[in-house]
Known about the structure:
Strand content: 5-15%
Number of helices: 6
Distance between the termini: 61 Å
Helix content: 55-70%
Number of strands: 3
CATH topology of the domain at 8-73: Arc Repressor Mutant, subunit A
CATH class of the domain at 8-73: Mainly Alpha
CATH superfamily of the domain at 8-73: Winged helix-like DNA-binding domain superfamily/Winged helix DNA-binding domain
Largest sheet: 3 strands, antiparallel
Amino acid sequence: xxxxxxxxxxxxxxxxxxxxxxxxxxxxxxxxxxxxxxxxxxxxxxxxxxxxxxxxxxxxxxxxxxxxxxxxxxxxxxxxxxxxxxxxxxxxxxxxxxxxxxxx
Length: 104
């Protein structure tokens, strides 16, 4: 069975993967550094990193025996664009709420 690359939305759906992205936002980290900050096993961190790597949200490079991961924020542009479409919806909703509260 050939595995399908994870899409960005699937990748960020999991709270552990979002936590890993948050940790990598401040700079590159090794797997060991990431595991030390997580409450899941080394195997689980590795699986989550694999999903993030396949979705294009992180990059990996070797440094001796260590694998170093870094975030690729540009891969989140699809999510940013999609959520941006809802900005006008929320702005309009809050404007309607303001008008309603002013009239009450």
